[in-house]
Amino acid sequence: MSSTSKRKPDSQQGPSQPPSRWRNPRAQEAYSSKLLDALRLVRAGSAPSARGREVRDAAYRALAVAARGRSRWSRAIIARRRRALQRASLLPSAPPSSVTVSSSSSGPGQSLASRARALGRLVPGCRRLSLPALLAEVSDYIAALEMQVRTMNQLTQDVAVASGTGSSPTA
Where is this protein localized, as stated in its record (predicted)? Predict the structure, then answer.
C-alpha cells in the first residue's frame, strides 16, 4: 500500500464537529454544584448498598439536570425518576422481576443492527433510534460521563484535602 491513505487525517475531522458542551469548565462547575446539592440530600442513615445506589442515582440525576433536557438520555433519566416517584406513591412495593441475560457473541457474524441495539440499551432513552441519531446521543453521553468522572475525581481530592488526608493525585 502506498504512503497515502484513504482515511482523512484527524486534523480535517476535528473542526467539522462543534466542541462538546461538556468539555468547558463552566459546565463542569455547574454539574459540580448540582452534584453537591444532590449528594447533600442522600440519606446518611440508610444501608450501605442503598446509599451507594442513592449516590449513583443522584449523580446521574445531577448530570441530566446539568444537560437541561437537551439530549434524549437526560430526558430519559429525569423521566425515570419521575415515574419511580409516582409508582412509589401509588403502588405497594412488589418483588423485583427476574431479568434474563442472553449470551451474545461479539464475533464477526454479529450484525451491525444487533450491535446498534446493544448500544441503544446502554444509553438511557436510546433503544429505538436510528443509527446516526444513536451515535450522536452516544457521543454526547460519553462526553457527559467523562466530565462526571473528572468532577467526581476533583470532588474526592477536595474532600481528602479538607479532611487532612490529602494525598498527591495519581492521574
Answer: Nucleus
Domain limits at 67? 22-90+113-151
Q: Coil, strand or helix: which one is 37?
A: helix
Residues 167/47, Cβ–Cβ less than 8 Å:
no
Would you say residue 60 lies in a domain? Answer: yes
Q: Is the pTM of this model over 0.85?
A: no
**Phi, psi angle pair for 78, to nearest 5°:** -65, -40
Q: Does the pLDDT at position 11 exceed 50?
A: no
In a domain, 29, yes or no: yes
Number of domains in the chain: 1
Q: Which stretch of 21-25, 63-67, 154-158 has the lowest confidence by average pLDDT? A: 21-25
* 26 inside domain: yes
Residue 64, CA distances (Å) to 80, 98, 135, 149, 163 in order = 11, 28, 18, 14, 29
For residues 168 and 171, give the distance between their C-alpha atoms in angstroms, rounded to a whole number: 9
Query: pLDDT tens digits for 98-129?
Result: 655 555 555 565 788 889 999 999 999 988 89
Residue found by looking up cell 462526571 in the block:
148
105 located within any domain? no
